[in-house]
Amino acid sequence: MFSNVYPIFHAAYPEITFRIAEARVKKMEQLLLQKEVTLACLAYFGNHKNPAIEYNEMEEEFIVLGLPISHPLASLSGERSYDTLPSIDLTLLEEDSFALIARDSRMRDLVDELFERAGFIPNILFESASTQTVFNMVKQQICPAFFPQSYVDPDAPIAYFTVPPRDTWVRTIAYLKGSYLTKPEKYFMSLAIDYVKGTLEN
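Structure (tokenized):
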């Protein structure tokens, strides 16, 4: 997002420089609350919002369960599962081992809730701080995993599903409530929102 938005922003505000911090959602929330950053790309699900933060929603996306195409249940996905994201009963995978995102991530909180609702504790083959790595574990036909819909690749050998009640999370650009945003900050935020929504014009 940043690499696409920055050239447009820089043309309007060439004197502005950025100090970028990269972290998972929970850490980024802390940086925002500690006023170490002024804007943060965050995601939340359900009512898991911090009351001290103002969230500008960019995109809502499903939490997707990916199965290696070689998995015995992959055929349940039907055609074009990357587009239809059919529903599957998670209890059918109770005997499987999963690749999961790290425990200190917001995504893991949501995934843990899915397993709790399904009534079993998953066998964990692999944990990673990187969602891309978790996705690649499915792509390489190693094991099932959960990841955001934005990682779905129609060309990957993966069967894509959602799990009832088809949970979503919301990607946002956020700032502290009551804080003053400069005109350049507001402009950057609008560009970021337009980019994620697919309405950015050069």
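DSSP finds six helices and seven strands in the chain. The radius of gyration is 19 Å.
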